[in-house]
């Protein structure tokens, strides 16, 4: 039997037209476009359209897409009871269990059929609606948990600005909305990461879109995956309190503690997402941004001294937390914000996998005690 490397590292399990990550080059793309350049020049809705339809939209196509998706982001009234219950699930800073519960309940409420039994147009609509509803659900859960009434989405705001409005109830500034939009575009998809692969495995069984998204969210909730942005900012708080970033970093390395926000499973260069988010953070300014830039260099230096043959750089989570904090997003909502964007990528992968009629069913090598033969 051919034995795959631990974690299936570099094992090709499917063909995809959605995008790719080139870790040795420090580059990743959506379809044929650099993801970083899309984040620099396009809106969330334009890139979302690219994931759904495979090309960037013309003006009339974009207008129609915006109108369609904005019509899908209002929650039905009958879900209010489930929202109230779901808001109390999970820990003090975690709302992903509530999102999973709500999405799971919405599947039968909307009579979503299995991918196996649905045509392409129906599958696309189910995925589009689930993606459009995700920020509305998460913001409602946050506001209920904090003793506030949920807000209805505003038809005059794009996805990023609407997310800030739904969370805070205030009019988002153009600078904050654009900074957040760039972050959201950068994190829509990133190769066959754990949550994306989970979504595709579930989709390969013919299950419905909501089931596949809930599975992806389960994988995403882990601290080694989507749960890192707030932890990275916690580390920055420790550094500021310590007063000496380099000494702090050396202490972490000496104690073999993982420094959240640094290193990546794929990139052997600087993370291109982090490079752009550093620019975005500098544009927003503030003491946290200044502290982050100083800390980044100190941590990179400490890691280089400890691992000269395997340099580690800031990954997307480090500056993601800094940018979201500068935009006024509560720390408890960092990972949910990441989920708002990644749902676009998960949905695209679910729909692509649904075109295959082959279930994903790998093998495992048994290494336990020999079985007793009858």
Describe the structure.
- With 374 residues, the chain is an all-alpha fold.
- It has a single domain, classed as Citrate Synthase, domain 1.
- It is 57% helix and 3% strand.
- Helix 6 runs antiparallel to helix 16, helix 9 packs parallel to helix 16 (334-354) and helix 11 packs across helix 15 (316-326).
- The chain is globular.
- It starts with 18 loop residues before the first strand and ends in a 20-residue tail after the last helix.
- The model has no long low-confidence stretch (mean pLDDT 90).
CATH superfamily: Citrate Synthase, domain 1
The biggest beta sheet reads: 3 strands, antiparallel
Tell me the CATH architecture.
Answer: Orthogonal Bundle
Q: What is the CATH class designation?
A: Mainly Alpha
Beta strand count: 3
Give the end-to-end Cα distance, rounded to a whole number of Å. 25 Å
Derived structural class: mainly alpha
Element order, helices and strands? EEEHHHHHHHHHHHHHHHH
**Number of spatially distinct domains:** 1
Range of helix content: 55-70%
Secondary structure layout:
Blueprint: E1 19-22, E2 27-30, E3 33-34, H1 35-41, H2 44-53, H3 59-71, H4 80-86, H5 96-109, H6 120-145, H7 159-168, H8 174-186, H9 194-204, H10 209-220, H11 229-242, H12 245-254, H13 272-284, H14 287-306, H15 316-326, H16 334-354
Antiparallel strand pairs: 1-2, 2-3
Helix pairs in contact: 1-8, 4-5, 5-6, 5-10, 6-7, 6-16, 7-8, 8-13, 8-15, 9-10, 9-16, 10-16, 11-15, 12-14, 13-15
């Amino acid at each position: 039997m051919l034995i795959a490397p631990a974690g299936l590292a570099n094992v090709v399990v499917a063909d995809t037209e959605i995008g790719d990550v080139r870790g040795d080059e420090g580059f990743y793309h959506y379809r044929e476009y650099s993801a970083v350049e899309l984040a620099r020049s396009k809106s969330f809705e334009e890139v979302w359209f690219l994931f759904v339809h495979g090309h960037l939209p013309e003006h009339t196509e974009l207008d129609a897409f915006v109108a369609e998706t904005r019509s899908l982001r209002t929650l039905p009234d009958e879900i209010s009871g489930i929202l109230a219950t779901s808001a109390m699930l999970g820990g003090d800073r975690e709302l992903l269990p509530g999102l999973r519960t709500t999405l799971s309940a919405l599947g039968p409420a909307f009579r979503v059929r299995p991918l196996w039994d649905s045509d392409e147009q129906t599958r696309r609509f189910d995925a589009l609606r689930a993606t459009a509803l995700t920020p509305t659900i998460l913001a409602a859960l946050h506001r209920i948990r904090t003793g506030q009434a949920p807000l209805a989405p505003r038809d005059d705001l794009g996805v990023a600005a609407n997310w800030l409005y739904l969370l805070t109830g205030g009019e988002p500034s153009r600078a904050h909305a654009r900074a957040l939009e760039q972050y959201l575009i950068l994190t829509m998809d990133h190769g066959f990461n754990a949550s994306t692969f989970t979504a595709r495995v579930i989709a390969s069984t013919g299950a419905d879109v909501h089931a596949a998204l809930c599975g992806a969210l389960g994988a995403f909730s882990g601290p080694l995956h989507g749960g890192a942005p707030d932890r990275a900012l916690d580390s920055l708080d420790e550094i500021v309190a310590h007063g000496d970033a380099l000494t702090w970093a050396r202490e972490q390395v000496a104690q073999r503690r993982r420094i959240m926000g640094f290193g990546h499973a794929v990139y052997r260069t600087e993370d291109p997402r982090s490079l752009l988010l550093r620019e975005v953070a500098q544009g927003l300014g503030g003491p946290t941004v200044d502290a982050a830039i100083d800390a980044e260099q100190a941590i990179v230096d400490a890691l280089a001294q400890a691992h000269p043959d395997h340099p580690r750089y800031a990954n997307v989570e480090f500056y993601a937390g800094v940018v979201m904090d500068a935009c006024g997003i509560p720390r408890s909502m960092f990972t949910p914000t990441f989920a708002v964007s990644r749902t676009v990528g998960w949905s695209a992968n679910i729909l692509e996998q649904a075109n295959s009629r082959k279930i994903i069913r790998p093998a495992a090598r048994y290494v336990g005690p020999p079985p007793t033969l009858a």
